[in-house]
Design goal:
Elements lengths: L2 E5 L2 E8 L6 E5 L11 H8 L4 E5 L18 H9 L10 H14 L5 E6 L1 H12 L4 E7 L13 H8 L9 H15 L8 H14 L5 H10 L5 H4 L6 E6 L7 H10 L4 E5 L11 H20 L2
Parallel strand pairs: 3-4, 3-5, 5-6, 6-7, 7-8
Antiparallel strand pairs: 1-2, 2-4
Helix pairs in contact: 1-11, 3-4, 6-7
């Protein structure tokens, strides 16, 4: 059962696994997705290793504060503004979202956490580690990017599927789920095909928790305007892990390589056949790597 707290002027929904007295792993979700994309079995895998695991809905998703008063930001409008050299009006930035996560730690009386982010959540986690370093014990960035403008772009067909208009689930829930499944199938890796039935169940659960009209577009705009983070990444000194799939159609492998190269001492973990998702057969592998990174922070603390 999720709870909610006031954080950075918003309400953030969260839940927690494991002993509240243990070191915390904070999980940050990706673009337009809810905290339950960090599935219960994955959270339990981490909690079983002796951690408190906290996941939460980013602003504009699920049961956290919705920003519908700012209106939708469709991809065509965003692309046109960028092509003309105009900065579109943003409802918020990734820095705002990083402050949300820091404020959540404050609200839960957590001084420092092992921060783990996937996709957009990886970008938010990177900002936390660079701009709020005193709150971060270790950093794990999964299937994300450094923002380097010279990196290769997403596969055109995958991008087209991501930004195409989606049916309103209030009017056509079956159509909405079908579009979502088609996209998820495209970005799954060659070695880990999508469990279609499980994904349909997950999307249905997200819809029941709360669909935010326009939230995806507003978050996409925040990503598009977040800029090149390499200078910020260069100041990160906490133990860092960068995980990336070799089959990622949204952020090609070079995006993960560049992130790892930009952070001093980062461990680089490419996973053969993984796409832009976190398939259950890899839960243990990725949890092992997160734990290894967290233990590096314990060793570093002993030397302080």
């Amino acid at each position: 059962m999720s709870a909610s707290v006031a954080a950075n002027g918003n309400t953030l929904a969260y839940d927690s696994f494991g002993d509240e007295a243990s070191e915390t792993i904070l999980l940050i979700a990706g673009l337009g997705t809810q905290m339950i994309r960090w599935t219960d079995p994955f959270c339990a895998e981490l909690a079983a290793r002796g951690y408190r695991v906290v996941r939460f809905d980013n602003r504009d998703t699920g049961q956290s504060t919705h920003f519908t008063e700012h209106g939708a930001m469709d991809f065509g409008t965003l692309a046109a503004a960028l092509a003309e050299g105009r900065r579109p009006d943003l409802a918020y930035t990734l820095d705002d979202m990083a402050l949300d996560a820091v404020s959540l730690l404050d609200a839960l009386s957590i001084r420092r956490a092992h921060v783990v982010g996937r996709s957009m959540g990886g970008m938010i986690a990177q900002i936390m580690a660079s701009e709020h370093s005193s709150r971060v014990r270790s950093l794990t960035s999964i299937m994300s990017s450094s923002g380097n403008p010279g990196l290769p772009s997403a596969a055109p067909d995958a991008m087209a599927l991501m930004v195409r208009p989606t049916p309103d689930p209030a009017l056509d829930e079956a159509g909405f789920i079908e579009r979502t499944v088609t996209f998820a199938q495209r970005i799954a890796g060659s070695s880990y095909p999508l469990d279609e039935e499980a994904h349909r169940t997950l999307i249905g659960a997200e819809l029941r928790r709360g669909y935010v009209r326009g939230g995806f577009g507003r978050q996409l705009a925040a990503i598009a305007l977040s800029g090149d983070r390499r200078t910020r990444l260069s100041v990160i000194r906490v133990p860092t892990l960068v995980v990336h799939g070799t089959d990622d159609a949204l952020f090609p492998l070079a995006c993960g390589e560049d992130t790892a190269a930009s952070i001093p001492g980062a461990e680089w973990l490419p996973i053969q056949g993984m796409g832009h998702d976190l398939p259950p057969p890899l839960y243990r592998t990725i949890a092992d790597a997160i734990e290894r990174t967290a233990r590096r922070s314990d060793i570093a603390a002993l030397g302080e």
